[in-house]
Amino acid sequence: xxxxxxxxxxxxxxxxxxxxxxxxxxxxxxxxxxxxxxxxxxxxxxxxxxxxxxxxxxxxxxxxxxxxxxxxxxxxxxxxxxxxxxxxxxxxxxxxxxxxxxxxxxxxxxxxxxxxxxxxxxxxxxxxxxxxxxxxxx
Length: 138
Hints:
The chain is of the alpha+beta class. The chain has helices at 4-20, 68-90, 99-113, 115-131, and strands at residues 37-45, 48-55, 58-65. Helix content is 52%, strand content 18%.
């Protein structure tokens, strides 16, 4: 279980980072228990931070990280992805794979937070595109 001081410290860091990229506050709320609606939450034990997604009492995924930096990446990546997809919807180009707009925006936002995070996001995107390349309508 995470103590209140740790909770508050992590939440403050997420808010500070989120403000730097103009993230809406609703994307920056760190949850410490399952909501039941598939929203990620954090737990902490001797193995590290657990980034958990569960829905209706069923755990869907769990990622365990040992560093606060890794945890912050996971938390901010969620917000950045949501912002990148909002950006794509506002700048959609008919017939063009929407990821061509969302992915560069995701990298741009992550680079404002931390260049290492942008490089990691770029690697994640490259892996996605290997198995699922861009597809534009003719």
